[in-house]
């Protein structure tokens, strides 16, 4: 994705594209005073697209959001953290609808113009008195400036240590178009769809079909290529909104600037995906796995995700142990074609396997490399032209500590 086709905007946020405002506050769902309720509002009806978790136990907000998106338009997204509103039966559905109607009322919108998202503990009912009171306070906090975006990005976090944001501009018909995103995700990360919760905004002019197509294609190469722990949540959702306020010729795959827009869109999604992987619960290192020379891209994706999801590989990286045997074992069990005689593996700059035979390497140099903040693993299969990249993190003692006491 040619990086020269877009410009990275340092400090940009979901309110940088024209037409968007945001807010976040603490309504009392979290035990701490961290923000736990937020909203994104568009000044005009925005073209919207979404992808959702593949988990069969889908939280109530996903049902509500699907209904709101039936006409392909949105004006607002309301989000709470601290409670997933998942596996909560009819009452949970009623609560999600109440969140939608209350938000619509506060911002003078139709209920169908509002999407709902929740994240947090599964199986507990929302404290709706606190949620409703918080929603009533959101309009006073709404801002198109950085503080609005900051408060929203903080409001969607659970066990995350840091907010995740990215922003770029591209030229479409000679007009500056902005694409931005924010996301949350730290544990229960193995999406098979998008991310845990992600929200993208742009002022591009694009129809719903084209936006949905781009969203699906891009998530398959970014959010679908990350894993922290192999678990797919009940609440995963990614929503993109396009205000159209850049007022250029409508983008379609046939538009001469489509590739530039798609590259910028891809960059934002990839940065958010990598940030989620890096911020995995208890993680100390980001791992990037690159697979080349597979029979096809799908095979490369499957192999890369098997490696990045291996608890043994993740544990070896945590222990700074250049144990390539765990990598080759993951390659062999991915269920995709491999020639057992032609595999090369490198850990960072250090070649450890060539043509499926061990290579003598400097263990001390490998130790130093593996103790860095990020670790690259390159696998070359030499049987085709398929390639893929996946991201994850190491498996640490803190991951067990955090998840052993998640509810308490």
TrEMBL record:
Protein name: Arginine biosynthesis bifunctional protein ArgJ
Pathway: Amino-acid biosynthesis; L-arginine biosynthesis; N(2)-acetyl-L-ornithine from L-glutamate: step 1/4; Amino-acid biosynthesis; L-arginine biosynthesis; L-ornithine and N-acetyl-L-glutamate from L-glutamate and N(2)-acetyl-L-ornithine (cyclic): step 1/1
PANTHER family referenced in this protein's UniProt entry, alphabetically: ARGININE BIOSYNTHESIS BIFUNCTIONAL PROTEIN ARGJ (PTHR23100), ARGININE BIOSYNTHESIS BIFUNCTIONAL PROTEIN ARGJ, MITOCHONDRIAL (PTHR23100:SF0)
Keyword Transferase among UniProt keywords: yes
Family the UniProt entry places it in: Belongs to the ArgJ family.
Lineage of the organism: Bacteria, Bacillati, Bacillota, Bacilli, Bacillales
UniProt-annotated location(s): Cytoplasm
Entries under Pfam families matching the protein: ArgJ
Residues the record marks as active site: 195
Site label Involved in the stabilization of negative charge on the oxyanion by the formation of the oxyanion hole, positions: 119-120
HAMAP family in UniProt: ArgJ (MF_01106)
GO biological process: one example: ornithine biosynthetic process
Naturally occurring in which organism (per UniProt): Paenibacillus glucanolyticus
Record-annotated site: Cleavage: 194-195
Recorded GO CC terms: cytoplasm
Keyword Ribosomal protein assigned: no
Superkingdom in the source lineage: Bacteria
